[in-house]
């Protein structure tokens, strides 16, 4: 994919204006009339046509012919807009290799203006066939025809907000550096995804950290909502960092109870299955919700 990364170099100012014009037009309709693009971009007809053609060749936009000719941004075009914005703000300098692909995201290495390495997480909501994942997301289930670009942006905004909140409460999460549209720039946590780790010297120590994370999140007013061994990174000192926050919810959410229970269940099941650590989910949940001290 990442034509968007190449686009950092390829995308000139007028091209960016045309893409931005389409983005603005897409607030009102899926396909945007050339006249509207022209108006928003401030370019004349000929230049607009020229840059539209270029963008089309680079697969940054999609053309639709109906009772008028219209354009919409592709995910590559959206990548290009967001990357350019981060670049213009001096947040990033160059993009590196892909680090990994999740169900609803792709993660890349990136260098900031001081050549320090961090990560970009590109949210990709609505591009896979994981219908069940989409269903649990509030914003995609209430609005039936939301564009995947918009859904991806909401997902990134939510994740950024919760990561910052978690960091304010000194929870073990990646530091965030920037967010634009559907992209989050954050710290690269050194370690291994817990689901890929075959042995741990002191699993109780890890287990306690996870329960402590759930409890302290609850005390801070939120629930992770997708906690499991797939979203926990463990380092060489067996310290955990929790990632992947777009679906977090406030503790006063109507389903808070259920979400908390599921997070506890997912993690306790993992420790039971893998390390034979048995726990009483109901008792843990009651202690967390009752604001009582945890015992492990
Ligand atoms: N801050 C980070 N530091 C190190 N690795 C990370 C970080 N963020 C994400 N990753 C890696 O990228 C993968 C995908 O990220 P994440 O879990 O946030 O996205 P996702 O698309 O929601 O994944 P999934 O839905 O498959 O759980 C992670 O499993 C992890 O390997
Ligand atoms: Mg994940």
The stretches of 5 or more residues where confidence is low (pLDDT under 50) are: 130-144
Rg to the nearest angstrom? 22 Å
Report strand %: 15-25%
CATH homologous superfamily of the largest domain - what is it? Transferase(Phosphotransferase) domain 1
Global mean pLDDT: 91
What CATH first level of the largest domain would be assigned? Mainly Alpha
Distance between the ends: 45 Å
Helical run tally: 11
Order of the strands making up the biggest sheet? 4-5-6-8-7
Largest sheet: 5 strands, antiparallel
Name the bound molecules: adenosine-5'-triphosphate, magnesium ion
Query: From the helix content, strand content and strand pairing, which structural class follows?
Result: alpha+beta
What is the name of the CATH topology of the largest domain?
Answer: Transferase(Phosphotransferase), domain 1
**Whole-number total of structural domains:** 3
Share of residues in helices: 40-55%
Instruction: Give the tally of β-strands.
Output: 13
The helix-strand sequence is HHEHHEEHEEEHHHEEEHEEEEHH
Structural commentary:
- The protein is α+β, with helices and mostly antiparallel strands and 296 residues long.
- It has 3 domains: 3-77, Orthogonal Bundle (Arc Repressor Mutant, subunit A), CATH 1.10.10; 95-186, Phosphorylase Kinase, domain 1, CATH 3.30.200.20; 192-289, Transferase(Phosphotransferase), domain 1, CATH 1.10.510.
- It is built from 11 helices and 13 strands.
- A 5-stranded antiparallel beta sheet has the order 4-5-6-8-7, sandwiched between helices. A 3-stranded antiparallel beta sheet has the order 1-3-2.
- Strand 4 and strand 5 (105-111) form a beta hairpin.
- Helix 1 (3-10) crosses helix 5 and helix 2 (13-25) packs across helix 3.
- The longest helix has 21 residues, at 148-168.
- It starts with a helix and ends in a 7-residue tail after the last helix.
- Residues 130-144 have low confidence and may be disordered.
- The structure holds adenosine-5'-triphosphate and magnesium ion.
- Adenosine-5'-triphosphate (ATP) binds at residues 99-100, 102-105, 107, 119, 121, 174, 186-189, 193, 230-231, 233, 243-244.
């Amino acid at each position: 994919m990442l034509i968007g990364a190449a686009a950092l170099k390829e995308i000139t100012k007028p091209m960016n204006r045309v893409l931005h014009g389409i983005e603005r037009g897409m607030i009102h309709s899926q396909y945007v009339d050339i006249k509207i693009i022209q108006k928003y971009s401030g370019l004349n007809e000929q230049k607009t046509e020229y840059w539209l053609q270029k963008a089309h060749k680079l697969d940054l936009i999609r053309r639709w012919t109906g009772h008028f000719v219209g354009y919409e941004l592709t995910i590559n075009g959206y990548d290009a807009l967001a990357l350019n914005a981060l670049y213009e703000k001096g947040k990033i300098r160059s993009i590196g290799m892909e680090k990994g692909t999740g169900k609803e995201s792709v993660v890349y290495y990136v260098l900031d203006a001081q050549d320090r390495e961090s990560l970009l997480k590109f949210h990709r909501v609505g591009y896979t066939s994981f219908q069940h994942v989409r269903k649990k997301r509030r914003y995609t289930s209430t609005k039936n025809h939301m564009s995947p670009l918009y859904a991806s942006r909401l997902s990134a905004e939510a994740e950024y907000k919760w990561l910052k909140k978690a960091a304010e409460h000194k929870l073990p999460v990646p530091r965030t550096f920037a967010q634009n549209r559907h992209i989050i720039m954050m710290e690269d946590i050194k370690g291994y995804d817990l689901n890929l780790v075959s042995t741990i010297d002191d699993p109780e120590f890890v287990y306690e950290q996870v329960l402590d994370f759930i409890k302290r999140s609850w005390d801070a007013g939120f629930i992770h909502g997708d906690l499991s061994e797939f979203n926990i990174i463990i380092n060489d000192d067996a310290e955990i960092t929790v990632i992947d926050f777009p679906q977090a919810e406030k503790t006063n959410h109507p389903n808070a109870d259920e979400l908390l229970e599921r997070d506890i269940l997912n993690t306790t099941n993992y420790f039971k299955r893998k390390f034979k650590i048995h726990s009483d989910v109901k008792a843990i949940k009651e202690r967390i919700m009752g604001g009582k001290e945890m015992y492990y």
